[in-house]
Amino acid sequence: MTSILHYEQDELGVVTLTLNHPGTRNALTGTGLVEALLDACQRIETDQVVRAVIITSSGSIFSSGGKIDEMERQIGPDYSSADLRQEYRHGIQRLPLAIHGLEVPTIAAVTGPAIGAGCDLACMCDMRVASEQASFAESFVRIGIVPGDGGAWFLPRLIGMARAAEMSFTGEPVDARTALEWGLVSRVVPAEDLLPTARALARKIAANSGPAVRMTKRLLREGQQSSLANLLELSAAYQAIAHKTGEHAAAVKDFMDKKAARKAAK
Fold first, then answer.
1. Predicted confidence band at 2 (pLDDT cuts at 50, 70, 90)?
2. How far apart are CA 145 and CA 127, in angstroms?
3. What's the rounded Cα separation, in Å, for the pair 115 and 104?
């Protein structure tokens, strides 16, 4: 993977993607980071060994979001509104679709401020673990633009409409403790414990059946939009598949062997 995005995979199939563009505080636009993340997602999707993904950053800033000098280019006379719409559709808007669509669970390990599109990047993940130095700002209105990368879809689903509206209409950041209280993150830890905590969580996930975890994630996704009847139909189909996997057979055998051993020891 490129130097602006480090791709690391451990023996359990946990992939860690580390944003590394300190000159722009890990800005997503105008740096190549969007393209690098899209390449990483494609690589992950085609690798059945991968069990979980962590997205984090080097340095004290998770992501500053959009690069301001890119915005200066966009307001120039060479770009029409129609051009900019297509630039969004074929640019950064591919990222929420790619990350949200990953079959394996994703964890954002938020090192510090997550601003604008950086906040939305964290929200694209299934889980968020934050450093005590982290903060989250849906700050688009402060520079006269709107969340163009799916933040208006992700944020209300995570913290409810009223709190999402407060963050989006004021653009003010919330600190890590408030993010925990609101349910935006599931854990807040000291900075030195952030990556070990995220990796421990990812490894707990990776220890389970890969096919079962992937199908469970799909059911959780579908449950946000499907009727109960439709979700039950899909659950029945996935359960039929799960019962025939080698992972399920091994787990049942292990349980029965232990049960027999306990019975024999009595």
1. low
2. 27
3. 25
Residues 6 or more apart whose CB falls under 8 angstroms from that of 262 comprise none
Q: Which residues contact 18 (CB under 8 A, 6 or more apart)?
A: 5, 6, 8, 56, 57, 58
Contacts of 37 (CB under 8 A, 6+ apart): 5, 17, 28, 55, 95, 98, 99
Name the amino acid, one letter, at 95.
L
Question: Are 184 and 224 in the same domain?
Answer: no
Q: Which residue has the tokens 């690589």?
A: 43
pLDDT tens per residue, range 74-97: 777 787 888 888 888 988 899 999
What is the residue range of 249's domain? Answer: 210-265
In whole angstroms, give the CA distance from residue 17 to residue 34.
12
DSSP line for 55-85: EEESSS-SB--S-HHHHHHHTSTT--HHHHH
Overall number of domains in the chain: 2
- The upper half-sphere exposure of residue 10, i.e. CA atoms within 13 Å in the direction of its Cβ, equals 14
User: 186 phi and psi, to 5 degrees?
Assistant: -100, -20
Which of helix, strand or coil describes residue 54?
Answer: strand
Q: What is the pLDDT of residue 204?
A: 97
Nearest to 121 by CA among 142, 82, 149: 149
Q: Report the C-alpha gap between 230 and 138 in whole angstroms.
A: 34
- Boundary-marking domain end, from 189, 206, 223: 206
The enclosing domain of 36 has a CATH number of 3.90.226.10
CA distance 43 to 81: 33
